[in-house]
Design brief:
Largest sheet: none
Helix content: over 70%
Distance between the termini: 56 Å
Number of strands: 0
Order of helices and strands: HHHH
Number of helices: 4
Strand content: under 5%
Shape: flat
Structural class: mainly alpha
Oligomer: single chain
């Protein structure tokens, strides 16, 4: 019985790796579709097309059950999607920093929120917290 288990250990390990890869591919394909919907109109069409092409190649490898191609295409698609989301993040940061320094409207909003944070305009009661040591009571 033990010899049989040892003999099948390698096959079991390989099968587990294949199942894990297929699950990762399914998850990546789902996430890619979601990401592509989210970035439509926010990222260059060329970047979206590149991601769609890589996604389609990964789907073909998945349909053929080609493990080596799935590994390769999964890594390529992961890189493309990550690069695209980084670009989107950088664009958002640039837009945000450009809007913050763009005008007096941002400055007046900051001033009005500073008054309420001051405690003058809201009903917040400030108090002190003291930690007591009740270790002796136990």
């Amino acid at each position: 019985m033990v010899k049989e288990a040892e003999a099948n250990a390698d096959a079991d390990k390989k099968r587990k790796e294949e199942v894990d890869l297929k699950n990762e591919v399914d998850q990546l394909l789902f996430q890619t579709d979601k990401t592509l919907k989210d970035v439509k109109g926010k990222v260059d069409d060329a970047d979206i097309k590149k991601a769609e092409d890589a996604r389609d190649e990964l789907k073909k490898a998945q349909e053929k059950n080609d493990i080596d191609a799935m590994k390769e295409k999964k890594d390529a698609l992961n890189k493309i999607v990550q690069d695209m989301t980084v670009k989107l993040y950088q664009q958002a940061q640039a837009a945000q920093s450009g809007a913050a320094g763009a005008g007096s409207a941002a400055g007046s909003d900051a001033g009005s929120s500073a008054n309420s944070a001051d405690g003058k305009d809201d009903d917040t009661i400030n108090g002190e917290y003291t930690d007591t040591d009740d270790g002796d009571k136990k």
